């Protein structure tokens, strides 16, 4: 083991321990985020913990690797919304980290290894067949991704040094206790004695939550009238039996949860698709489908995944929102105002990515050369009349100009004469989006996507920036695969899906005993239904989480205005009410204010989750090495 480091004054030393006992780390959550942390522990341990002994306890009621969300026992009809070549669990040189890069395959490369016999995994016949046919441009099933995550977990555990022993506990952690300066106790459901830990790491993913005030009112109304109300939840866990064939169902939400619902209620009930020679998709109902009336604030689905790969020079990002700008924002008193403090920088950064690509890859559609435009662009404020005038004078075609407001609110000011024309208009919108997102002539859109990833990587350093950014990012960057939107169009033409439009409002009708919904994009009474589905994940608030461990931390930990657990941006230690980092408790995931965009990521994207995993792993190993060096009590004492 390397020489002992100076013991930090903030981490108190306990009394001496009997020799021969190993310290203990309890990791709560063995899904993708926990697996990524195990990978980083394995990568950093040879240098930071060489020769040391450690008991690593992994606590999760679901199989490690996939966890609950990516478990294998869900419908094979459910897909990932990222191309197989854009999914990896491994760091690369782009990731800002102190630990070593340990190369590993992307999902597409792993599947190729399965096909070629270079890699081995216990796959059922259907999943093995999918793996053999997968390409980098495929959208894998979640069951195949579950197999990949399980393989990464097993490989990471095998890479741990001999002195680190892994103990798996297929139970739920329900409480953590212990003094700030001493060992912690993690209580497991159905187990009398707790696990005793020198460090505790929470790597929990998306969790269920208690309903908010509106959801409680709607649920109570449904219960007293014998209606069906499905609250925000992971769609694969939803009980869809109350959504009856042929009957209207109001669906509020047009993101990825809606597409899961759409799949399970159509193909999942025996419907099928055919494609003719011209590429038109037609849906053939089974007769068991309900009629889905879908609406949301925007009134349109998330933007399609881009259907081509990058070629040529990448925009040099970050440019206007990088580490320097983040450091300038940090000391500002009080919470940051998204529109005042962040949006101008985001707008300028995404505009830079867009125009860099347009001017360098499609110069025939511009009026000046890139260096001249870049110089003038850099000197002007985002959203200013001067900047709009510059763009108008240098980019002749309005379709080549970036308008984030128009992208974010495509139905603002649009009014259709009736419900049928609304259906036609929404289908035209989706068709136009599909055509553009699969046409390399519009490659500035892909540059904006790269800009979104860059911005996300910077904003995560600021902690909780509110829901506005996450919603905008998901709408533009985390949309469905193109084939899903083509299926949506087919379902619309078949009358299985009906669009409600923007600013959809849901009401209860006590007289008729039904739900009612209507949007603002067309006149008319809207739709009445005996079923309402909230097609979204619950907000990751700690205060309303149904996870007892998180709820237990609410009273003693710092929580942001959005209800997120506050953590140290450096190493993810949980902050107390007094703002001090807890020396023995860490947290990662969507319930924290350092939430990253995903536990796995696109290769060569400096993924925030990978940065966080590496920093936490190194902090944990350094702390545990300090215990071993100084002979302080371990979990087994």
What characteristics describe this protein?
five-stranded parallel sheet, HpyO/CreE_NAD-binding, FAD/NAD(P)-binding domain, Putative NAD(P)/FAD-binding protein YdhS, disordered N terminus, 3 domains, alpha/beta, six-stranded mixed sheet, 637 residues, disordered C terminus, L-asp_N-monooxygenase_NS-form
- Give the number of domains: 3
Mind telling me the C-alpha Rg? Answer: 26 Å
CATH architecture of the largest domain: 3-Layer(bba) Sandwich
Q: Specify the number of helices.
A: 17
The percent range for helix content is 25-40%
**CATH structural class of the largest domain:** Alpha Beta
Task: Briefly note the CATH topology name of the largest domain.
Answer: FAD/NAD(P)-binding domain
| Cα-to-Cα separation, first versus last residue | 21 Å
Major sheet details: 6 strands, mixed
User: What's the CATH H-level superfamily name of the largest domain?
Assistant: FAD/NAD(P)-binding domain
Structural class of the secondary elements?
A: alpha/beta
Strand line-up of the largest beta sheet: 3-2-1-7-19-18
Shape: globular
* Fraction of residues in β-strands: 5-15%
Quick summary of this structure?
It holds the Pfam family NAD_binding_9. This protein is of the alpha/beta class and 637 residues long. 35% of the residues lie in helices and 14% in strands.
């Amino acid at each position: 083991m390397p020489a002992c480091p100076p013991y930090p004054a903030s981490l108190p030393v306990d009394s001496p321990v009997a020799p021969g006992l190993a310290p203990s780390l309890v990791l709560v959550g063995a899904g993708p985020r926990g697996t990524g942390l195990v990978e980083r522990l394995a990568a950093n341990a040879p240098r930071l913990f060489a020769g040391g002994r450690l008991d690593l306890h992994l606590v999760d009621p679901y199989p490690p690797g996939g966890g609950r969300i990516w478990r294998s026992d869900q419908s094979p009809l459910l897909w990932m919304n990222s191309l197989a070549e854009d999914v990896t669990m491994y760091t690369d040189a782009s990731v800002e980290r102190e630990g070593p890069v340990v190369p590993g395959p992307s999902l597409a490369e792993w599947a190729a290894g399965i096909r070629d016999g270079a890699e081995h995994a216990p796959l059922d016949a259907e999943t093995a067949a999918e793996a053999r046919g997968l390409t980098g441009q495929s959208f894998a099933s979640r069951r195949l991704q579950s197999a990949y995550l399980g393989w990464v977990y097993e490989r990471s555990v095998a890479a741990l040094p001999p002195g680190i022993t892994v103990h798996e506990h297929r139970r739920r952690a329900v409480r953590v206790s212990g003094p700030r300066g001493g060992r912690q106790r993690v209580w497991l459901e159905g187990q009398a004695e707790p696990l005793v830990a020198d460090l505790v790491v929470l790597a929990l993913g998306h969790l269920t939550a208690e309903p908010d005030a509106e959801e409680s009112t709607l649920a109570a109304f449904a219960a007293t009238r014998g209606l069906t109300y499905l609250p925000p939840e992971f769609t694969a866990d939803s009980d869809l039996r109350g959504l009856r064939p042929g009957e209207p169902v109001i669906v509020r939400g047009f993101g990825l949860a809606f597409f899961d619902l759409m799949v399970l209620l159509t193909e999942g009930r025996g419907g099928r698709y055919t494609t003719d020679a011209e590429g038109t998709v037609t849906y053939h109902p089974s007769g068991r489908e309900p009629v889905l009336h879908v609406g949301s604030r925007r009134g349109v689905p998330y933007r399609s995944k881009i259907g081509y790969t990058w070629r040529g020079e990448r925009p040099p990002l970050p440019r206007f929102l990088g580490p320097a700008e983040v450091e300038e924002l940090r000391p500002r008193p009080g919470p940051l105002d998204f529109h005042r403090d962040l949006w101008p920088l985001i707008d300028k950064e995404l505009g830079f990515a867009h125009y860099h690509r347009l001017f360098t890859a499609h110069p025939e559609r511009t009026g000046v050369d890139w260096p001249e435009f870049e110089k003038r662009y850099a000197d002007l404020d985002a959203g200013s009349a001067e900047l709009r005038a510059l763009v108008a004078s240098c980019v002749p075609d309005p379709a080549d100009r970036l308008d984030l407001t128009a992208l974010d609110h495509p139905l603002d000011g649009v009014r259709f004469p009736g419900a049928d024309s609304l259906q036609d208009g929404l289908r035209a919108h989706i068709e136009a989006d599909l055509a553009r997102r699969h046409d390399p002539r519009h490659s500035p859109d892909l540059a904006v996507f790269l800009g979104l990833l860059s911005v996300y990587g910077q904003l995560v350093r600021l902690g909780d920036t509110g829901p506005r950014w996450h919603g905008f990012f998901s709408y533009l960057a985390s949309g469905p695969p193109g084939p899903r939107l083509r299926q949506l169009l087919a379902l619309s033409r078949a009358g299985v899906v009906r669009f409600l439009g923007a600013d959809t409002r849901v009401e209860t009708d006590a007289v008729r005993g039904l739900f009612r919904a209507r949007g603002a994009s067309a006149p008319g009474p809207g739709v009445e239904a005996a079923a309402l589905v909230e097609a979204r994940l619950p907000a990751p608030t700690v205060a309303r989480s149904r996870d007892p461990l998180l709820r237990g931390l609410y009273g003693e930990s710092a929580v942001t205005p959005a209800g997120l657990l506050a953590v140290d941006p450096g190493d993810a230690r949980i902050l107390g009410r007094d703002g001090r980092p807890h020396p023995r408790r860490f947290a990662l995931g969507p319930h924290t204010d350092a939430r990253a965009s995903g536990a796995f990521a696109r290769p060569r994207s400096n993924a925030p989750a990978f940065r966080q995993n590496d920093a936490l792993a190194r902090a944990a190993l350094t702390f545990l090495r300090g215990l071993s060096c100084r002979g302080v009590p371990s979990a087994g004492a």
